[in-house]
Each structure stands twice: as structure tokens, then as C-alpha cells.
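User: Please fill in residues for this 420-position structure.
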């Protein structure tokens, strides 16, 4: 599906000259989700069935080239915040419905890049305020299910977190070795090794549990110890299973279950398997279920809210007040500007919530989230599996950052995860 790329040019004074200016360009591309939260900022699509099956983005592109460019050309924006506030005001709606969050975010991120270049610093430094940097544990989504794959697995994401490493570089190697081991195990068992949207394998399995069991086998085959070296993170994306107040195992057995029933599954999985993070363990419209889940498991694992919070500071505040989750998933395009994303991150940290940075299932080669993860010391991110260039692009950028920072940066390791 098409997406929006924007380019921002900043006219900055040339060093040592009062008259001469430099034209500095910044460019950025927005991603797109498949299992989106209901309260995400609006992704503007043309809905013209004759182009891209309705998924065209000519309206969003026009909003950048005509409306935003016209308003902003020749103006001075001293900070990211000033730029983003002007974008928010120009749009004028609470959910960026007029210009489109895809149009607005493309400009916001391009501005950040142009500013970083103007100030002669890498993006991760421009986005950093603490003076401290941390390399993240890559949570690699090695088995895809749910809406991200044409298989019979209900839960969307089964990730490996190679945390027992001394660097990001080593951690990625451990993850890739496990990914390859998993491929050979799937092959041997006669399962498909085709991949899903985020680059994880998408086999038809006997059960959702089998996904975890096979991953544990792969970790061992690669020479690592589950729990000690590599643990498991899960995003079942349960909002996709929620129907009339119940959870439906829509891809396998069609079984229906209450929030209490689903909670029992999570409790038994967490007792049985080395699971350290559970994202969207309950659906976005099941706040009561979320409260039960949090009360029961918040001291055992990281409970990350994705669909329920939508990277939105006002919704996160409601969640904090209601005692929901202990971590928030961060996706820039759920809220639509860099500044609001940072506002959500600051709020999370102030309330002792973790931030888990994330790609979308529809990604591009843009690597902004790699820099953001290091800049805000998130300690962990999810940006795909062991393959697919649009995911690997983020890993490569993280390798560059680690190389550049050298001894000045530490690898987060297991401590990145809540309660570990
Ligand atoms: P999406 O899913 O990018 O398809 O919305 C990712 C997630 O649920 O974390
Ligand atoms: Zn999710």
C-alpha cells in the first residue's frame, strides 16, 4: 500500500556569513498499521476504489504540498514543538482528521531530520534531552499470526528478546541465529517457512501454544538457554479477537472466552514459559479485563498497552488513573507528531511506566524509530524479525549508532523489562 514521504527544507545561515544561507533537507516516510487501535489519529486515504483499492494517499500528499507548504514557507520555527504545534493548529481537529496524521507526521519527522542536520548532530542526539543513551534489546517477532499472516494462529506476535548480551550487535546475532534455527525446525516438521507481514514465519500450527514451544526449541538449537539468554514477548493483539464482550479464537477453534478465561491462559503461560512482556493482553474496549490483568500480573511481567493507549497522552493518563498496564507501546503515527509522542513518553516515565518503541506492520525504509529508541533510553523495541529489508533497516541504523557512540553507550539487557 502507498504511504506518504515528505521533505522539509530549512534555510539556515552559513557559518561565519551574515548573508549566505544553506538549504538543508530532511526527509521522512510514515508507516501504516493493519491491526490499528480505534482511537488512533486518522490516516487519510483517498477511498477511491479505482486507485490502490481505495488506499491511495493523493489527498494526504496534496495536503502536504498545497496546504502545509503554503502556510509554512518562509516561517521560522525555532523548535520541534513550535513546528508541531503549528501543524496541530492548522489541522484544527482532535484526531488530525482534516490534514491526515500521515501528512502531518511525515512533515513533523522530516522537520526533525532537517533540524538535526542543521545543528550538525545525528537524529538520536537531536531527540535526546537527558545526555544519556542506551542500546535496546531487539524484540524480534519470529512467528506471525493474527491479522499479520494467512495461517491458523490467533495471536499476532511471538517475539524473542535476546537480552543476555553485552551489546546490541551481539544481541542481534543471537536473535538471527535463533531465527535461522527456527526455520530449520519448521522445515523438519514439514511446516511452511514463508513469512508474514513483519518477517516472522507464518506456519499453520496445531495450537497457539505450539508457537511458543517451537520458539523455545529454536533458542536451544541455536545454543542458548531460554529465560537466561533469550526470553519471549507476546503481542496477541486481542482487540482483533474481541467480539460482543468476548474473546473469539477466530483463526483456530472459533472458541469464545471471557476476560477471566483469557487471564487464566496468560497466568498459565507466564508460569510455564519464560515470558517477560505481554502486550495487549486484553482488548482496547475491555478496560475491566485490563484492570484484572494488571492487578494479577503487573509484578511478574511487563504489561504493554498498545491499542488501548494509542500513544495518546490523554488516554494514557486515563489508563494510569485506572491502574492499567505498566508500559506503553510507542508508535509515532498513532498520535501524529514527534512532540506529542515525546509528551506520551515523558508522561509514561513520570509514572514509572516503560516505553516500548514499535514499527507498524506496514513499514518503509525510514529509520526514525531506531534513533528515537536510543534517544529516549527505551531499552527495548520491536521492529520485525530476522528478515525483510524495511525491518532490517532499523537494525542496521542501530548498529551504526552503537558503533558511533562506542564506549559512551551501554546495552540495556534484561533490566529494560519491567520487574526484571
Ligand atoms: P499494526 O500492528 O502495525 O498492524 O497495527 C502492530 C501491533 O499490534 O503492535
Ligand atoms: Zn500491538
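Assistant: Residues filled in for all 420 positions:
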Amino acid at each position: 500500500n502507498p504511504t506518504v514521504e515528505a521533505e522539509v527544507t530549512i534555510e539556515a545561515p552559513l557559518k561565519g556569513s551574515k548573508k549566505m544561507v544553506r538549504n538543508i533537507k530532511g526527509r521522512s516516510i510514515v508507516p501504516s498499521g493493519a491491526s490499528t487501535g480505534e482511537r488512533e489519529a486518522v490516516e487519510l486515504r483517498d477511498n477511491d476504489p479505482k486507485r490502490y483499492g481505495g488506499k491511495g494517499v493523493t489527498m494526504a500528499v496534496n495536503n502536504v504540498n498545497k496546504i502545509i507548504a503554503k502556510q509554512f514557507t518562509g516561517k521560522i520555527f525555532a523548535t520541534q514543538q513550535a513546528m508541531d504545534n503549528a501543524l496541530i493548529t492548522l489541522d484544527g481537529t482532535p484526531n488530525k482528521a482534516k490534514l491526515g496524521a500521515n501528512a502531518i507526521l511525515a512533515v513533523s519527522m522530516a522537520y526533525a531530520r532537517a533540524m538535526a542536520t542543521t545543528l550538525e548532530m545525528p537524529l538520536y542526539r537531536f531527540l535526546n534531552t537527558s545526555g544519556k543513551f542506551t542500546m535496546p534489546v531487539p524484540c524480534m517477532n519470529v512467528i506471525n499470526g493474527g491479522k499479520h499472516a494467512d495461517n491458523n494462529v490467533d495471536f499476532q506476535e511471538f517475539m524473542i528478546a535476546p537480552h543476555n548480551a553485552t551489546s546490541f550487535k551481539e544481541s542481534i546475532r543471537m536473535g538471527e541465529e535463533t531465527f535461522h534455527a527456527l526455520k530449520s525446525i519448521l522445515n523438519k516438521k514439514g511446516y511452511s517457512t514463508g513469512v508474514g507481514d513483519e518477517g516472522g514465519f507464518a506456519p499453520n500450527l496445531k495450537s497457539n501454544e505450539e508457537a511458543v514451544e517451537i520458539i523455545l526449541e529454536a533458542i536451544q538449537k541455536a545454543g542458548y538457554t531460554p529465560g537466561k539468554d533469550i526470553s519471549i514477548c507476546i503481542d496477541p493483539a486481542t482487540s482483533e479477537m474481541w467480539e460482543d464482550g468476548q474473546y473469539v479464537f477466530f483463526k483456530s477453534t472459533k472458541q469464545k472466552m471471557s476476560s477471566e478465561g483469557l487471564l487464566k491462559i496468560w497466568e498459565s503461560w507466564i508460569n510455564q514459559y519464560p515470558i517477560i512482556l505481554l502486550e495487549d493482553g486484553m482488548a482496547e474496549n475491555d478496560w475491566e479485563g485490563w484492570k484484572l490483568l494488571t492487578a494479577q500480573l503487573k509484578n511478574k511481567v511487563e504489561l504493554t498497552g498498545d491499542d488501548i493507549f494509542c500513544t495518546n497522552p490523554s488516554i494514557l493518563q486515563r489508563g494510569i488513573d485506572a491502574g492499567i498496564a505498566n508500559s506503553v507501546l510507542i508508535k509515532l503515527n498513532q498520535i501524529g507528531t514527534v512532540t506529542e509522542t515525546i509528551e506520551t513518553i515523558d508522561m509514561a516515565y513520570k509514572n514509572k511506566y516503560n516505553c516500548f518503541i514499535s514499527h507498524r506492520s506496514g513499514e518503509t525504509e525510514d529509520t526514525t524509530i531506531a534513533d528515537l529508541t536510543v534517544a529516549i533510553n527505551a531499552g527495548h523495541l520491536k521492529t520485525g524479525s530476522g528478515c525483510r529489508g524495511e525491518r532490517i533497516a532499523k537494525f542496521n541504523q542501530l548498529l551504526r549508532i552503537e558503533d558511533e557512540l562506542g564506549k559512551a553507550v551501554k546495552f540495556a539487557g534484561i533490566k529494560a523489562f519491567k520487574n526484571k
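For context: The chain has two domains: 5-120, 134-416.
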